[in-house]
Amino acid sequence: MFRQIYMLYGLLILATVGYAQYNGWSLDTMNQLKNVPKSVRDNPGSYRSVYSGYHHYTGGK
Amino acid sequence: MNPEPPPVGGPQPRVSGLNCPNCGGSITLRALGQASSVVCEGCGSILDAQDPKLQIIQTFHRIVSSDPPLIPLGTRGKIRGTDYEVIGFERRTITVDLVEYHWHEYILFNPYKGFRYLTEYQGHWNDISICKELPSMSSSFNISPRVNYLGESYQHFQSADANTDFVLGEFPWQVRVGERASVTDYVHPPRVLSGEKMAGEVTWSIGEYVPGRDVWKAFNLSGSPPPAIGVYENEPSPFSANLKAVWIGFAALAFGLLVMMIGFDLFAMNSSVFQGAYRFTSGYPRAEASFVTNTFELGGRPSNVEVTTSTDLQNNWIYLNYALINQDTGQAWDFGREVSFYSGYDSDGSWTEGSRNAAIVVPSVPPGQYYLRIEPEADTVQPPVTYTVEVRRDVPVSSFYGIGFLALLIPAILITWRSASFEKSRWSESDHPHSPIIAEGN
What we know:
The complex is a heterodimer. Chain A is mainly α.
């Protein structure tokens, strides 16, 4: 019984990986927006990224 | 247990009522003519069942009145399609490291099939019969001795001296309380091969593990059997039967994953749709740093887009705010990446930290005309940074295969670990507690 469940589970994993690859999933995080105004093309500074408050690492060893 | 070989084509069942010559209590002989000894239920005297006068073989003080048989004498049940009656019961004990271990044996009788035995130890039951042929010692080298029987190899489990300390009912041999036998068990779950040496004679019997509920069902007993405690020597592992199949399944699925990876790598578009080279100087007065690229086309089905940043950084960093924007629909993916690279030399030698390149994968981007809005940030006191941005369409993401592989591997490892734990528990009770853990019975 366990082996049947395992094979079913494995096929589900393969199907998920295949689906993710085919549809271009990603593990990276980002913010998705809609209806960004066309004026951004002419005035890039009018758009502000939600990531602009990022704290930068300025280290080194 | 030291029985005579079971008779073939025995007589019709005969039951006789007699009296104990010691206490006068009534004696019921259920296997008349077949049993060698019978125990008086009144005084515990062991009588010669072959003697018409029931001569006393042994008298003993009953010491186990609080340990009655779980299957009462006279109970009938069906074992492997044959009706048997419980005619005898004995309790036996081995002592290991000053600790006594008791188990119970039930003598079953069918006038046509002869004798059969059930043993019970802490809720673990075995259906036992006398071997039809002698086992042979294995000649191959092993950590523990092995014997072969009917084409199967049995591994030595335990040897001990067993003492009979309580008897009840009839027996196919002249039973004695206090009789001792050297018992050696070899296991090949779910079977156990036992050799009992007494007075220079070895009797071999073969047993098969039976769940308590099957015994209860066979004898139509009320209530439920006592719960099985621990792992018994020939108890079949619920995991080892699946172990081989699961690892074969894992290999097949991992191969499928590999084929899928090669297939997607071969057929993925993975095409460069945009490249641009830029230089960023940070300082005051600060001008507007953001800019947009030329438009580029993302074709094909909805798929991912990889944005790679390559720099000439040296002990410096740059942070890039990106927005991938669909020119027609206004849909945008907003993300950022810091790229930093440091290197130097100290007492440990040269060192580096970070990378001059960074990539990010934007998921499931529909086809269309797109451009990038890029907003760089950098340290104001550092020299200008030159960087290139490349956009690739429909790239394979290897991390999914890694996650998939782990997801396949974890259940296989878990069942292997559980199987190993089961075998470790089994062998910890043996004479070979440190033997290699072998999942038998596959």
